[in-house]
Amino acid sequence: MRTQVAIIGAGPAGMLLSHLLAAEGVESVVVETRTEDYVASRIRAGILEQSSVDLLHAAGLGERLAREGDQHRGIHLQWPEERHHLDFVDLTGRSVWVYGQTEVQKDLVAARTAGGQEVHYGVSGTALHDLESDSPSVTFTSADGAPTRVTASVVVGCDGSFGPSRASVPDTIRQTWEKVYPYSWLGILADVAPSTDELIYAWHPDGFAMHSMRSETVSRLYLQVPNGTDLDDWSDDRIWSSLATRLGHGQDGWTLTPGPITERSVLPMRSFVQTPMRHGRMFLAGDAAHIVPPTGAKGLNLAVADVGLLAPALVDLVRNDDSRLADAYSDTALRRVWRCTHFSWWMTTMLHTSGDEFDQQLQLSQLRWVATSEAGATGLAENYAGLPIGF
Ligand code: FAD
Ligand code: DHB
């Protein structure tokens, strides 16, 4: 079959790209290894920054987000005996929204289904071909076992950290950077009202903890744990009592209310960047090109920002044969990628304990400066609430 843009991966990057292209009359075909239900129910990111929200609204995808999303002015930053609120709106005029990736994905799928989008779920053996030609293609075996080829003007790899797209750039051209952190997150979802109005990021000598949320009745919490942690070693009681200790239960009258845990997982943490984000007629967007550790909630937002740049570039390329934006895409996107890579690394290394007592004193000094100096707080706020698309 033939289309204008072949998109590999039906996660947020792939589905949003397909949506933005369709709005400009550019046709795409999406291929995805997993089932539609699996993709829609994966519990991942929870925070949308201002520019992501603006883009989703501009794309006509903001109706449920406006109704059900929860706008937050900032975050709480804490360490033992102290909790400080950073008000991003006062500091930068920008805010963030609690709206789960599961919800973004549902909105995207609903919009693409209404638009008659072709998505091939459950495929296997995805391979990319002829990327340096004007007629690149993607082959795969469809869910019902049929060998299939999609030929296009452009192929876009939105296939996350384990897809084949990034490795299709020749080794002589691609450059990669990677940092693996010596700790992981144990994340839970719990059927209990959040014990906080806005997210709490907590430094603690036992390890980092965070209190996030998904709704008025669902809480999302994370604990720093050693790499290789076995979930079987973490009973519900151990999880809740570690969270209570690290989040400061009892401090200044604050209490953490536990509840039934409905989902739990261990998340390894790494930073990864591959450049360039384009090879011939193949472009990379989202986790296919870069991974950030989750502290600071940048992964999903960066995927949205990539696609926000790539969509107009591809429209110009395939509809008007104008390659200027496409030629600039990798360099432009990478400016934001490296900014978010640095911010995520900075938040991660400031808040997780792994070093000696000297390192801990430096972390505490840094936290105190960020929480109490307007200059320090503004730096965190500007990065967390997100720089404008195209930064
Ligand atoms: P993905 O969402 O990974 O989508 C890629 C898609 O490509 C997938 O559906 C995959 O099945 C598909 N695919 C892969 N291989 C192939 C193939 N061969 N053929 C066809 N399709 C293929 N970010 C945060 O900001 N906060 C968080 O709390 C957070 N938690 C996370 C937890 C986990 C377990 C993970 C993995 C990520 C988390 N992230 C978080 C990161 C965030 O979810 C991602 O940055 C975001 O999903 C990126 O979107 P994407 O579309 O680029 O990639
Ligand atoms: C969430 C995840 C993050 O990494 C973060 O920094 C904030 C919130 C979340 O899953 O809600």
Explain what the structure shows.
GO terms for molecular function: 4-hydroxybenzoate 3-monooxygenase activity. Residues 2-343 form the FAD-binding domain. Its EC number is 1.14.13.2. This is 4-hydroxybenzoate 3-monooxygenase. Keywords: FAD, Flavoprotein, Oxidoreductase. By secondary structure, the chain is of the alpha+beta class. It has a domain at 5-72 and 97-177 and 270-354: 3-Layer(bba) Sandwich (FAD/NAD(P)-binding domain). The chain has eleven helices and 20 strands. It has helices at 12-23, 36-41, 50-58, 63-68, 88-92, 101-114, 236-247, 299-320, 324-351, 357-372, 374-385, and strands at 5-8, 28-31, 47-49, 70-72, 74-79, 82-87, 96-98, 118-120, 124-129, 137-141, 147-151, 154-157, 175-190, 200-202, 209-213, 219-226, 261-275, 278-279, 282-284, 290-291. It has an eight-stranded mixed beta sheet with strand order 6-5-14-15-16-13-17-20. A hairpin with a 7-residue loop joins strand 9 and strand 10. Helix 8 runs antiparallel to helix 9. The protein is globular, with a radius of gyration of 21 Å.
How far do the termini sit from each other?
A: 37 Å
Q: In the CATH hierarchy, what is the superfamily of the domain at 5-72 and 97-177 and 270-354?
A: FAD/NAD(P)-binding domain
Number of helices: 11
> Which percent bin holds the helix content?
25-40%
CATH topology heading of the domain at 5-72 and 97-177 and 270-354: FAD/NAD(P)-binding domain
The main β sheet shows up as: 8 strands, mixed
For the residues shown, what is the average pLDDT? 96
Please give the radius of gyration in angstroms: 21 Å
Specify the structural class: alpha+beta
Compounds present?
flavin-adenine dinucleotide, 3,4-dihydroxybenzoic acid
Would you count the extended β strands for me? Answer: 20
Within the largest sheet, what's the order of strands? 6-5-14-15-16-13-17-20
CATH class of the domain at 5-72 and 97-177 and 270-354: Alpha Beta
Stretches where pLDDT falls below 50 for ≥5 residues? none
CATH architecture of the domain at 5-72 and 97-177 and 270-354: 3-Layer(bba) Sandwich
Protein name: 4-hydroxybenzoate 3-monooxygenase
Organism: Nocardioides alpinus
EC number: 1.14.13.2
Keywords: FAD, Flavoprotein, Oxidoreductase
